[in-house]
Design a protein that fits this description.
Elements (H helix, E strand, L loop, with lengths): L1 E4 L13 E5 L6 E2 L10 E6 L2 E6 L6 E3 L2 E2 L4 E2 L5 E4 L2 E4 L34 H76 L3 H14 L5 H29 L3 H9 L8 H24 L7 H17 L4 H18 L11 H10 L3 H11 L4 H18 L6 H14 L6 H23 L3 H14 L4 H24 L4 H14 L5 H22 L1
Parallel strand pairs: 2-3
Antiparallel strand pairs: 1-10, 2-4, 4-5, 5-8, 6-7, 6-9, 9-10
């Protein structure tokens, strides 16, 4: 069996054994990786008469020499089997070529002249008369033979003429049949080539090939070609849009990539490529945010901040309200404003630490440090602020590796140095701190370290009052603490020791300022007082 059309073009399959199955499944003896072929499509069975072929209930059906295969059929040398877009030819080794036998012949014509009559010798008028009659008969017979001979010759000529014409007609019909078959073969070959272009995803070339076929042979596979051309009207623009989107993704032009992806309509051929592009698009967003984060260490460079703003503009154009992009854009805008409107320190005041605070709030950390160092020898407050600034600078340099506790310390330093007003550094601190604290609190909650989880969540709400992760953790632990408190309260009269243990668990779950923590502490005090009284008695 030889593949003469399709994705396995040129592949040969040796038929052996009693049965062989052809189909898309890799487990088949004849495996054809073609989506138009069913997993188990065709059954080939060897019998004493030869190889038999039958369809196994495939989705697209099977054609034998362009005729639907509806029952098991004996294969002959040269038979062609079509499975979807794949075509196989049955080749029987050592078989003679099939030829149409021709037979013909004609009847022989045997004309024999009758023997001559003897001429009698008689005397008299009677003999002469008889002689004349005989001569006349001979003459008439001779004429008759001549006419019959001519007539037979004419008939033979007419027969030969008609035979020649019939032969010419047969030869002409054979030539026409051969020409039709050759045309059909060429058209089928070109049709298969066009379908192969579709499988390769080369839609523009496939569309051109199908249009040429339709123009040169309007009567050939009318519906199939029309269906492919209809699909091409959608898939060619889709492919063009996806190529442009891929180019834009490669250079992280998110807005352009998003616009091209939105041009892609429903596709039944290129959906896998579209899904891959969408995943690459999301990865490009994450990559651009990471690159933007790296620029936050260059807030004194206007060029870097303009670049940062442009990057965040691109992200926000495709994901409006993106949290990280919004925060990064605020950092860029504030830095650009600060660079365009540089801080000019006022005349030295009587309270020099005010200048330190003003410089810090303006984002001029180096200037604030210089002023604090200048007045540190005379002013204890300046000395303290100088120490705070050095501590803040050290933590800021390794901000990507800080623990939640260090983030809270850094936030508190920023708050103290800015006297609660905040500074350009505040946004940068929150940008890095919030994800780390959220993850740590979430992991502590899952691990059952409820006190640690609520402590982190409570402090996180102090710096981000609307943080949903912290709110959810506090709500869940409060509910659990309430249930534990109620169990302890119920056990208190009968099992005070167990109740005491449960009240302690409540205190471990919640910060001391929480309502149920305070109630649990009150109950513990009462239990201890009751225990002391009982011991004294």
């Amino acid at each position: 069996m030889v593949c003469v059309a399709g994705s396995q073009l040129g592949t040969e399959y040796l038929l052996k054994g009693e049965e062989m199955v052809a189909g898309r499944s890799p487990e088949n003896a004849i495996s054809i990786p073609d989506n138009s072929v069913s997993r188990k499509h065709l059954l080939l069975r060897q019998t004493p008469a030869g190889w038999m072929a039958s369809d196994m209930g495939s989705g697209n059906g099977t054609l034998l020499n362009e005729v639907p295969l509806r029952e098991e059929t004996l294969l002959e040398n040269g038979d062609r089997i079509s499975l979807g877009d794949t075509e196989l030819e049955f080749v029987l080794e050592g078989a003679p070529e099939r030829r149409l036998a021709k037979a013909g012949g004609g009847a022989a014509l045997d004309l024999r002249r009758p023997p001559d009559s003897r001429r009698p010798v008689r005397q008299g008028l009677r003999a002469i008369k008889r002689e004349q009659e005989v001569a006349q008969k001979k003459k008439t017979h001779k004429k008759l033979l001549m006419v019959v001979s001519l007539l037979l010759l004419a008939l033979a000529g007419v027969g030969a003429y008609f035979k020649l014409e019939e032969k010419k007609k047969e030869e002409a019909n054979s030539a026409v049949t051969a020409a039709v078959q050759e045309r059909e073969r060429i058209l089928n070959e070109r049709f298969q080539q066009a379908k192969n272009l579709v499988r390769l995803g080369e839609w523009a070339d496939a569309q051109h090939a199908f249009q040429e076929l339709q123009g040169q042979a309007p009567d050939f596979r009318i519906k199939e070609i029309a269906d492919y051309l209809k699909d091409a009207e959608k898939e060619v623009p889709n492919q063009t849009a996806m190529i442009e989107a891929q180019d834009a993704i490669a250079v992280l032009e998110l807005k352009e990539a998003d616009a091209r992806l939105k041009q892609v309509t429903d596709t039944k051929y290129q959906y896998e490529r579209l899904n891959t592009l969408k995943q690459e698009f999301q990865e490009a967003i994450r990559k651009k945010i990471k690159m933007a984060n790296e620029l936050t260490s260059k807030t004194t460079s206007r060029e870097s901040m303009v670049k940062l703003k442009a990057m965040t503009d691109d992200v926000l154009a495709v994901v409006p309200g993106h949290r990280d992009a919004t925060s990064l854009q605020s950092i860029a805008l504030e830095a650009i404003h600060r660079i365009d409107n540089p801080y000019r320190p006022p005349p030295p005041p009587e309270t020099p630490w005010v200048g330190v605070t003003d410089a810090y709030k303006a984002g001029e950390i180096e200037e604030a440090t210089r002023q604090a160092e200048a007045c540190a020898a005379k002013q204890p407050r300046c000395k303290k602020m100088h120490s705070q600034l050095e501590n803040l600078a050290a933590k800021n340099r390794r901000i990507e590796n800080l623990t939640p506790k260090e983030f809270f310390e850094l936030y508190e330093l920023d708050k103290q140095l800015s006297e609660g007003a905040g500074s350009p550094l505040t946004r940068r601190i929150l940008l890095f701190a919030i994800p780390v604290i959220e993850n740590t609190a979430r992991n502590a909650r899952l691990a059952g370290r409820l006190g640690e989880a609520t402590g982190l969540a409570s402090n996180l709400l102090k710096i981000d009052s609307k943080n949903t992760t912290a709110q959810n953790i506090m709500r869940e632990v409060r509910e659990q603490a309430q249930n534990t408190y109620m169990r302890a309260y119920t056990l208190r009269p009968t099992q005070p020791d167990q109740a005491e243990q449960l009240f302690k668990e409540v205190l471990q779950m919640l910060p001391a300022n929480e309502d149920y923590a305070q109630r649990a502490q009150t109950q513990l005090n009462a239990l201890r007082k009751a225990k002391i009284s009982a011991d004294e008695e």
